[in-house]
Transcriptional regulator (Chamaesiphon minutus), 196 residues
Amino acid sequence: MGRPLKANSLTPQDVIDAAIACLDREGESALGVNRVARELGIKPPAIYKHLEGNTGLRRAVALQIWCEYLIHCRSQTAGIDDKRALFLAGARATRNFAKSYPARYAVMMEYQLRPTEPPEAEIIQQSLRWFQDSLQLSTANRDAIVDTMRMVNAAIYGFIIRERSALMTLDRDPDASYEVMLLALLVAIEYIQQSQ
C-alpha cells in the first residue's frame, strides 16, 4: 500500500492556515480555492470536502481572523482598568493589527457577521462584551451601546482604510491625527452615555 494522499489527511484548519498564509503573502486576491489548493499541493475539489467553495473559505478565514484579532486586543489591554486608557489601548491595538496584517484586516472587516449563525454570533458577543468592558458601558441601554459601537467602528475603520489606501496626503503625522480622533471619540461617547 502506498502513502495516503495528502488530500485525504487534510483538515479544515489546514485549509484555513494555508489560506491565511496566501493572504499574508499575496493579499486579498489570493483568497480562493484554486490558489489555496496550489499552496497545499492538492487538487481544488479536495478543499470542497471541508469548506463550501470560495464562500465557505472566505467565511472560515474571516472567523479565524476575528478570533485572532479579539485575542490580540485582549492581550494589548490586559490589566488596564481606567476606561479611557482601556479605550485608547484597544483602538491602538486595532490600528496596529491592521498595519501588521492589512489583508487579514480587510477580509475580517468586509465579512458581515450574522447573529443568526452560532459561531458568528459568538464572535459578535465576544466583541460586544470586550467593547462594553473597554468603555464600561454595562449600564448603558442597548441603543446607546449600538450607537457608540457604530460610531467608533466607522471612525476607526474609516481612518485605517484611508491610511491603508495612502489617501492621507496632507502634511500632518497620521499618528497625531489618530490620537486626536480617539480623544474626540471619547468626548462623543460621554455625550451618548449622558443622553440616554
Observations:
- The domain at 77-195 is CATH 1.10.357 (Tetracycline Repressor; domain 2).
- The mean pLDDT is 90.
- Residues 53-77 form the longest helix (25 residues).
